[in-house]
Each structure stands twice: as structure tokens, then as C-alpha cells.
Amino acid sequence: MAATTVRVFLSWCHRDADAKTALLTRLLPALGLFTDLRVEWWEDSHLTCGEKFAPAILDRVAEADFGLLLVTTDYLVSPFIREHELSRFAGPGADRDALPVRLAPLPPFGSEIDLGGLSELTMFSLDGRAYTETTGPRRTRFGIELAASIRRRALNLNRYRAL
């Protein structure tokens, strides 16, 4: 059987570059192990010389099947992310599927905090911890379990299971 191909747009804040790089070091190899899923990946570091920043990003968002949202406080307060990326993946105007991940601890969910529609979505964490709250082998486990969660969502395997 041929692998299902999905396009994943990485939405992240540049202030979180170290944590993003550390997570991807664990996540991308794990995604590459699946024989039934092929992930095509895009992030703004793939921009080439002379490309116009905003139009290129908006084009890639429009082509994406999923947005992998690396959520932190800095992510949530970025005007560009909120207007052009997050709004496409979460909230009432969303037209793309979201894969939100707690990259760093967040304020408590409550009506006084504007999470841009993310409060309605299940956000990936490992045992209730954000990626930056893990260390050592738990970081590897975070990447592996996130890959498995992405696979289940992309292949629509989150259905009833036999006991």
C-alpha cells in the first residue's frame, strides 16, 4: 500500500528557535520511520533568496494539510503569527487542520487569556508537560509520541479502538 502524503506547515516564533530546533531533532527522524505516512515539511527557514516573506508564507499555509503549531507565550503575542498563521489553523475562521504542541509552559487557560482559538483544541504535551519542561530521554519520548500523534491524526486513526 502506498504511503499517504501530508503537507505540514511549521508555525513557530523565532524567539523559540533553540527549543524548536531541539524538538525537531527528535521529531523529524521519528516521522521518517513510518511506512504508511510521508510528511512534506515547510517552515520559513526554507525561504530562498529574493522571495517575499509574507506572500511565500501565506502560499505555503494555503497548501498545507496541517499546521504544526509550536505554542509558547511569545508565539501567542506575535502579531504576524496571530494574523496570518494562527487564524488559519484555530478559531472561527480556521480553514486548515491544526496540530498544536505545548513547546513551553503557558498561562492557565481561562476566559481572561486570549489563546487565539487554541483553547478549543487538544494541545499535545507529554504527561501534562511542555517540551521545554522535559529533559534527557523524556525529550526523545516527547518527539516519538508527538510523531505517533501526528500519524494518528493525519491517517484519521483516532477512532474507536477494540478493548
Total strands: the figure is: 4
Round the mean pLDDT to the nearest integer and report it. 94
User: What's the arrangement of strands in the largest beta sheet?
Assistant: 2-1-3-4
Radius of gyration computed on alpha carbons: 16 Å
Major sheet characteristics: 4 strands, parallel
The CATH topology annotation reads as Rossmann fold
Domain TIR: 8-109
Organism: Saccharothrix xinjiangensis
Protein name: TIR domain-containing protein
Pfam families: TIR_2
Describe the fold and architecture.
The chain has 163 residues and is an alpha/beta fold. It has a single domain, classed as Rossmann fold (3-Layer(aba) Sandwich). It contains five helices and four strands, in the order βαβαβααβα. It has a four-stranded parallel β-sheet with strand order 2-1-3-4, with helices on both faces. β1, α1 and β2 form a beta-alpha-beta unit. The longest helix has 18 residues, at 137-154. The protein is globular, with a radius of gyration of 16 Å. The protein starts with a strand and ends in a 9-residue tail after the last helix. The mean pLDDT is 94. Residues 8-109 form the TIR domain. InterPro entries: TIR_dom, Toll_tir_struct_dom_sf. It holds the Pfam family TIR_2.
Write a brief structural summary.
Residues 8-109 form the TIR domain. The chain is α/β, with parallel strands linked by helices and 163 residues long. The protein has helices at 17-32, 53-63, 73-77, 79-89, 137-154; strands at residues 4-11, 37-42, 66-71, 97-102.
